[in-house]
Structures are given as C-alpha cells and as structure tokens.
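Complex 695.
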Amino acid sequence: MAKQSASPGGTRRFISGVVEGFYGRPWTMEQRTELFRREQKWGLNTYLYAPKDDYKHRMYWRDLYSPEEAEQLVALISAAKENGVDFIYAISPGLDITFSNPKEVAALKRKLDQVSGFGCRSFSLLFDDIETEMCPADKQAFSTFAHAQVAVTNEVFTHLGQPETFLFCPTDYCAAFCSPTVSLSAYLHTVGDNLLPGVDVLWTGPKVVSHHITVESIVEVSSVLKRAPVIWDNIHANDYDPQRIFLGPYKDRPSDLIPKLRGVLTNPNCEFYPNFVAIHTLATWCRSNVGAGPKDVEMTGEEDSGSDPCYSPQKALSLALTDWLEEFLSTDQPGGRRPINPAPLKKDSLDEEPMQTEGGEPVYVPGPGENPLFTAEPLTLADLQLLSELFYLPYEHGTTARTMLTELNWLKGHREAVVGGAVTPVTAEWRLRAERFDEMCVAVVTMFNRLSNVPNRRILYDLYNYICDIKSGVGMARTYVKQLGGQGNPSPRVTCDDPEPWGFRGGLSGEFQRMLPCHGNRDLFRHPPMTTVYSIRPYCPEDKAEVLRIHVETQRHGEAKPTGPAMISDGLPSGQLSPSSNCALVLEDERGVCGYALGLTDATAAAQKNQRVLLKDFPSLVTMQLLPRVTDPAPARRMIGSLLASMKTSGCRGVFCELRQSDRNMMDFFSKLGSFRTLKMAGLPVNVIAMGTSL
Ligand code: GDL
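Predicted structure with GDL bound:
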C-alpha cells in the first residue's frame, strides 16, 4: 500500500488524483486497475473509491462485503499499491444513519475494519447530497447536524488509529450551499472548530460544478475550516446530463492554488476511457507549481497571454491529445485489426503468394469491375482537437464549436428573405460564410468517420452516442444552411411534418426543459456564464442618489407604479430614514452601484409611524434591492450576509424585512436564503408580507 508519505521538508505530499464519485454505473475493476497505471505514469498519487451507486458504498453501507467482493477489493487495493497510488475507501452512510445510536457507529466501524483487513489504510466519510433535517433521536443528542457528523467522524477516525489520510465530505461542500456565506456558515464553523486536525475536508469550490476556483475563495474557506481543503473537482463530471461529455483541459483553477490546497481529486465523466484528457491535464496542472522545483514542462503559452504563468490549458490539452491519439490507434481487441487499414492492393501488383491477414487468412482483393474495399483514413490529431472542442467544458464550448454557432446564427439572421419558397439572391459574403460553415460541418462528419474506424473500440464505444448526436445535429444545421442558400430541395430531415423519431430530440425530459422559462433550457452560446466582478462596500452619502434611483426603478419593475401604501423600509433608500451606523452596504459592478442592503437596528419608531406592530423577537429592519442586470444571486447573498453580521455585532437579535408580493425577485431571494421565514405581523398592507430571521 502506498503510504501517505511525508516529503523531505516534513510537509505532507499534495494529494492528487481521481475520485470515482459520480452517480450511475461504476467503473469495472479492470478500468480501475488501468487508472492506477495511468496515474502512476502521469505522476498522480491518489484514488478515492466513492461510486454513488455501488450498493455497499451508500445505500447498503452497513452490509459487509461477500468473500467474492472481498477478493476483488483485495486485488484492487494491492493493484493501487503496486502503482504507488493511495487507495482511499469512502463510505456514505448519510442516507439513513442515526448518528446518536451506538449500534450504527459500531456498524460503520465494523465495515471499515473489514476494508482495513483488505489492506486499505486510507478512509473517507462522505455526507454530501443528503437530507439536512435530523431525526428526533439525533436532535435530542446533538445541537446541530454538523455536531452529529463531526462526533461520528472523529470517533471513526480515532477507532481506525488516526490514518494518515482521512477525508470528510461536508453536507455544505461548496460556497453556494453555505448559509448565509462561507465565512458566516455555522455549519462550516462547527466542522472547522471540532473536526480533529488529522481529518481533511473535501470542497467543490464556489458551486457543485465550479466554473472558476479562486485563491481568495480558498483562503476564505480554509480560515473557516482551519485547514486547507482537498478539492473534489466536478469540472469534468457529466452524470447530470446524458447529452454532455467533457473532453476539454483542466482549466480556470490558477496554479497559485496548489500551495494553498491539501490536494485535488477530479470526479470526471462517467465513461472511463474518455477521461484521458481530464486526468492527463489535471496531472500537468499538478506538476505546474510544485514547490520551487524545476518545471518538467514549459507551460507559458502566448495564446494564454495575461493568464497563468505556470500552466497553459491549451498546451496541456495538446500534450494530452498527442498521447491520446496513440491510444486510439492501438488495438484493444485480441487479434484485432492493424492500427491503420492498408491501402487495398491492386490485383496486378500481387505476387504469386496471396496476401495474408494477421490471423493467417488470405486477404480478399476485389477484381476489375468489383466494389473496391472500404477504406477509412486513420484518425488525426486535428480530429481529436475538433472532438475536444465540440465537447469542451461545462461552461464553455471550444473555439470551433463557438465559431460554428456564431456563423450559423449570422447566416440565419442575414437570410430571412426566403418567402413562399422564393429565394432572393444571396450576397457574396453570405455565400462565402456559408461555404466556410459547410467545410466545418464536413470536418465533423470526417472526424466521425475516422473515429468509427479506430482500432481501439473501447474508447470509441464510450464516445459513440455523443459523436453520433453531434454528427446528426451538425448535419441538420448543414442541410438548413444549404436550403437557406437556395441549394438543394427542402430536406425532409429539417422540415418534414411527419418526422422520424430523431426529430423529437431529448425525449420527454427535453420537452419539459423547453417549456421552462429559464432553468434547464439555457444554452451556452446565448447565455454565457457571468464573468462580472462584484464588490461590496459601505454606503456613503454620495451613494444617496444612486440608491434612490435603484429603489424607484425596482419598485416599478414589472408594473406601472408601486401599489398599496408605503412599506416601512421605503424610508431607508428614499432618505427619510437613516440607516444605523455600519448597517448600510452597496453592491458595485463595472458599471457602478447596482444594489444596496440597508438596516435599522431599532425599527420601533418607524413602525409606529406606519401603524405596524413589531414582533418582539424581530425589532430590526433590513431592506435590499438589486438592479435587474444582477442575475447572479451569489453577490447578493454575500451582501445580505455581511449586513446581518454587522447588525448582529451591533446587538440585533432578530431582523425582519417587508416584501411586496409583486416583487418576485426579492420574494424569491429571501425565500431561497433558507434562514428567513414568513412572519405574522399585524398592520401589514395588502399584498405585503414580512419575513424574518433570528441572528
Ligand atoms: C455532486 C456529488 C457528486 C456528483 C456531482 C456532479 C459532490 C461532493 N457530490 O454534488 O457525487 O457526481 O455532484 O453531479 O460533488
């Protein structure tokens, strides 16, 4: 077993590798063993065994392994050891464990003792994706859910003799799950304060699938957790969408993060073989900033100017694709075809002796007038580059994919004059761009054909559904553009009133998604992820006019005039009431002030003026508004979190806010915060509700 060794300086080595932590069909033992070989070759050192749908990892976590299963696990753990990979066995008891029952804790220990008997020395307890409400027995025994998890984790960790590597996955494993913010999360503070120091904590970044992970965000969470986290990176995970697979490079994690982290484990695509790029590029990233040692790969890329000085995603991708091509071209079939189809020989060039296959049978050679043999060109590096660009990353299409979408959009937008079947002449520019679009479509089809012919069938089969889908999507776009340009007849594949089943793409789920107003039916082309940088700062007198403007604009949003009598909180942005000191913040983006959060520590006088009866536990008032351009809820959550924190410091016990029911934006925001609940308050105008939270 590869022991978690200490590096010469005494610091523990950086954990790097793969977590098999996705939903769906787990990898096979053969694939895992192959993974260990690759990890060793590429310099990664860890594998976290956590397949969500493996019966005995999660649903039936109490059940011990049968002798047959035990034999397989023993072999797997020793294969990891032989390849210098630390095998971490994870268990997810959170679906139904009663934390306060000693029998449950004993069952957990018994199971982990069994796995320890298989030669495993590193362990992990995962509490992701579970109900956060404790059962009555646990509520009696523990003050919070975090206390329950930490108590059991510490006990198991101690029982196992404090292994060198022991990982804990919190239920709030990303910033988006923290209420109200990472720094103010009571759950994370309990974990940070009480988890034994030898236990490391997994963290997925700002979101479940994080677009970017910044150094600042890691500094923030580390200070709450009192330890550097191990990133469980879902950047290449695809278990949430059966139409997507991610073949782009490890990206948008600055290499400066490496010294701030305990490690990184990628939870990649469900399909094993297409993970070549995900794991290879992660390995390149991990090597890019190791101590002060010399870099093994020169990574500064001109095309990445202004970005990471140690790591270039483009270069890492090129390295990975070059190695991957070799694997595609090597057969995985016993007695399989030779990597490249030989060009069919002409009959007259044959010697007396007939050609033999590798199996010793004579090669069929067509005679004059007969069908020539099917031949396909071998896969090229350019094909793999295209493949990766078409299936790039969760928040980003590759360059060619973006170009194709932009061009199709342009061609469509500049050719609306096809009326009643009569086609008006196209401009030279339109024709040229249509031709270029067509060439790009042909390249996709060619890539598909060459891929279908690769000798390594395992990789092909893992990719097949995806490449078939994109070939068909691109094919339809191609026919459509031809039709727009007046070439060819309207294709039944595009316009037919009685389509084949492939005309109903995405099935029932696709139909549900297309009906929803904003979730589930977005596309990356029209709604690229937000890159706006927001800052929160204290309100100053110069902000008065802007805050008033936002107040007026948001009150009118969606309706001509605000209806009903004024709310108490209207007095704050309008200037009739002054916010309490240290209780006023504004949100800014690059265009200026775009939101505010204002508070009054004692709202008694203001309430009397408005004939409201305050609830004794909620004497303080807050109000918040954002301009419609702020569509990302994260900065708003940070702002209200900071406001509540300073109000608490000022001695507030409970705050309330008043919300017009027509203000869907704020109604939605406060409801989703989790901490605010609706309050029954006397004297509220019609269509106004009050929500509050204790501090
Ligand atoms: C998750 C799950 C993970 C899943 C991923 C992507 C963690 C800690 N847990 O939330 O099992 O594969 O999302 O769907 O990430």
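Confidence is low (pLDDT under 50) at residues 1-6, 292-296, 339-352.
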